[in-house]
Automatic annotation (TrEMBL):
This is Uncharacterized protein. The chain crosses the membrane at residues 6-39. It comes from Anabaenopsis circularis NIES-21. Keywords: Membrane, Transmembrane, Transmembrane helix.
Amino acid sequence: MNKTLITSVIFAMLILLIVSPLAALASLMIVLLVSATFWFIKNLLQTIISGNVQSTEEGE
């Protein structure tokens, strides 16, 4: 569950960076948004389907 929560927070921060008025690298950020969207959806579906998410901490 921690991995899904961290992914959600990173995804929200990325969207805030893209819509900011001072986004000088907007085209690069859009490419990053597309890859982050797939990453977010993959982790979300993994949580919904299996209920077992890899921990972000080592040793577990």
